[in-house]
Each structure stands twice: as C-alpha cells, then as structure tokens.
Amino acid sequence: MRKPFLAGNWKMNKTVDEAVELAKELVENVGDVKDRDILICPTSLCLTEVAKIVKGTSVKLGAQNMSFEDSGAFTGEVSADMLLAAGCDYVIIGHSERREYYHEDNEAVNKKAKKALEKGINAIVCVGEKLEEREAGKAESVVEDHLKGAFSGISGEDAVKITIAYEPVWAIGTGKTATPEDADNMHAFIRKTLADIYDEAAAEKMRIQYGGSVKDSNVDELMARENIDGALVGGASLKADSFARIVKFK
Hints:
Layout: E1 5-9, H1 16-30, E2 37-41, H2 47-54, E3 59-63, H3 80-86, E4 90-93, H4 96-101, H5 106-119, E5 122-127, H6 131-135, H7 139-150, H8 156-159, E6 163-166, H9 180-197, H10 200-205, E7 208-210, H11 219-223, E8 230-233, H12 240-247
Parallel strand pairs: 1-2, 1-8, 2-3, 3-4, 4-5, 5-6, 6-7, 7-8
Helix pairs in contact: 1-2, 1-12, 5-7, 7-9
C-alpha cells in the first residue's frame, strides 16, 4: 500500500511574512496528520523561515527547483546543499513551467534527479503532455519520453526513492482537469512504463501524483482511483483551508 502524498507548490507567490503565516495555519490544521505525507514548496527566499514553522510537524518542506551543479558561476541558481541547509526534504524537478519557460529538457531533468539522489534530497519528477500533443494522440509517447529521459542511468534501487508527478500541461492553472478516469489511465500507463524500465516490483513501490487544477472539490474523486497516489497542488495550496481539505481527502 503506497502512502498518499499531498504536495503544495506555491510557485512565485507569498512574501516571507505571508509564507510564514500560511505555514502556521497549515500546521494548525494538518500538522499532526500521520497517515499521509504532506509537503509545501515555497519560493527559495522563504525556505529558511518556513522551515522553522514546520519543524517537528507532519508538514515537510520542499523547493521548487534546484541546480544540477554544486557551486560556481551560475547566477540565480540554488544548489542541493543550499536546500538541505535551509531545511528542505524535497525538491520539484522538471515542472512543466520550467520546461516551457526556461527550456529545461530531459537531459537537465535527468542531471537534477541524479544530483538529488547523490545529495539525499527527495525528488518529485514532473512529466506531462501539452494540449496539442494530447489532441494529436501523442500524450503517452510524450510522457514515455519524459520518463525514459528523466530516469536514464538511474538504478531501480534509486528510482523507487523518486516520486512522479503527472501534470497534463493543458490542465495547469486553467481550471480544466483531466477526468479521474483519464488521469488514472495515464497513471496506469506511467506505472507500466516504469515496470518496463525497471520491473513490476519497483513500479508498484513508486508513488505517482496527479497535478492539474486539483481542488478541494475534486480531490476525493481523484484520490479514489487505483493508480493515483497523491496530488501536486498549485493554486489551491495557497489558502490554508482549501489545502487542508485536500490533505484530508476522504
């Protein structure tokens, strides 16, 4: 039985003070929940202060991105060591917005995943197709390409430490959501692809989150599906009451 995993990606929202306030509200609401994993990912600027709030609670801290380099002349980048020192347990890698706006490709995602494994920080690797790719019947081939690229050269022993987030790009921030059946079908395809890359035992251990306009109004139906192990939540994670309801899905 895979433990449910609910993560909030705050994206480029919240000042340090606002992030601290939201973290406090979340800790009050879900800080003692034990039967599912809970994660929040503020901006890098907020990590150190939010870490103080969630320390010792069920809420874990993650970053939205990191460099595959350890240090050096890489202006604007943040390393894995910096994230660990700030109190992070997780990092999101290859989010569709990073792929689209900053041109991150499978090679960069793969390097970041390997760096996360090397440094002992838990990675959430994002995969997913654009609307035109889905309409052209290429959704599965795009996701398969993302998976094979991200996990290239990573052993099965290490792969099971990584969480997959399936995020249909056309459903992020648009209000559109893949039907629970469509989402579950893609999750099943992802699990089959992981079994082909590794084996069924490894694939069954790996958690696959759904990320695409998850809300408190649709989380119950999504989480009832066999292959959906959690959610990577965007806008609905910016309000304590809505994210708490998502965490407490029935």
